[in-house]
Design goal:
Structural class: alpha/beta
CATH topology of the largest domain: D-Maltodextrin-Binding Protein, domain 2
Number of helices: 9
GO molecular function, one term: DNA binding
Strand content: 25-35%
Keywords: DNA-binding, Transcription, Transcription regulation
InterPro entries: HTH-type_LysR_regulators, LysR_HTH_N, LysR_subst-bd, WH-like_DNA-bd_sf, WH_DNA-bd_sf
Family: Belongs to the LysR transcriptional regulatory family.
CATH architecture of the largest domain: 3-Layer(aba) Sandwich
Largest sheet: 8 strands, mixed
Shape: rod-shaped
Distance between the termini: 49 Å
Order of helices and strands: EEHHHEEHEHEHEEEEHEHEEEH
Protein name: HTH lysR-type domain-containing protein
Number of domains: 3
Length: 304
């Protein structure tokens, strides 16, 4: 690696020369500096002397085996240190870029999160970091927590509910309301918003995998709202298909509704919402690719 400039009349400074000078300045002994640089003492001495000749001034005063920095050497030393630091920074950037294309990101996604909004983020990330490989798997909140702790996942997109505690680092991405979804000709279509009491005795499709199901059912009991579950499923596609087949309505997060034929209205009195977050394990170092995804998620223009 060479640094060239015109101010000194076409000076060519090699990185090994910079390294040898910095070692000699630290040790104040060419023999020890050569050992530190893993070269012979004559090779180090020659390289330093060559650089001094090119610079036109001595960097060191020799006193037998002992050397001292000259006044010129002291003045140029900070510049040589900066050159070495920039070289290290350049190498780190190059290594990180190379590693981006070698280590896939293992991303876990809570099974009830709608894929459309998340897919837009992942598509942009792939465009910005086209060499990064991504492995996505779906699971429940508890499964995602377990897999993060065990090191089987790098990141997880989930609803932290009451919080994940100090064992996880959480960055909120977006919030979404719960809505009521139903077929186009349902009687609820005439309403602009739906109160929970409007749904009493109404047939509905139960989303068994919903992480907020217990909360919604608890509110129903508190308000004496009786719901008749005509169909139950853990699969989001089945739930929406059965709603569209006029089996009943369903409660769903607004960004999880993927069927364009379904109608939806916001749930009010009470309004229910959830937060979707990116979780990881604090203190565990990110791979370059994972670090890039965390930065991208924090700067992405999420809905809502």
């Amino acid at each position: 690696m060479s640094f060239r400039g015109t101010a000194s009349g076409g000076l060519a400074m090699e990185m090994f020369q910079v390294r040898y000078v910095l070692a000699a300045a630290k040790m104040l002994n060419f023999t020890k500096a050569a050992t530190d640089c893993n070269v012979s003492q004559p090779a180090l001495t020659k390289a330093v002397k060559t650089l001094e000749d090119e610079l036109g001034a001595p960097l060191f005063h020799r006193e037998g085996k002992r050397v001292l920095l000259s006044e010129f050497g002291r003045s140029i030393l900070p510049h040589l240190q900066q050159i070495m630091q920039e070289a290290h920074a350049t190498r780190t950037l190059a290594d990180n870029f190379r590693l981006l294309n070698q280590v896939p990101i293992r991303l876990g996604v809570m099974s009830t999160i709608g894929h459309v909004k998340l897919a837009r983020f992942l598509a942009k990330f792939q465009r910005d970091y086209h060499g990064v490989e991504l492995e996505v798997s779906e699971a429940s909140v508890q499964e995602l927590k377990n897999r993060l702790e065990q090191g089987d996942l790098d990141l997880a997109v989930l609803n932290p509910l009451e919080g994940l505690g100090a064992a996880f680092r959480v960055h909120d991405l977006y919030s979404e309301r719960y809505v009521v979804v139903f077929a186009p000709d349902h009687r609820l279509a005439s309403l602009n918003a739906i109160k929970l009491v409007d749904l009493s005795q109404e047939p509905y499709v139960d989303r068994l995998s919903c992480e907020m199901r217990d909360l919604v059912m608890g509110v129903c009991r508190e308000r004496n709202v009786s719901l008749y579950a005509r169909f139950r499923s853990e699969r989001e596609d089945w739930v929406q298909s059965m709603v569209l087949a006029r089996i009943g309505f369903a409660f769903m997060p607004e960004y999880s509704v993927t069927s364009p034929e379904l109608l939806q209205r916001p749930l009010i009195e009470p309004a229910v919402a959830r937060t979707v977050s990116l979780a990881s394990v604090p203190g565990r170092p990110y791979s370059p690719a994972t670090a890039a995804m965390v930065r991208a998620a924090q700067s992405f223009d999420w809905p809502g």
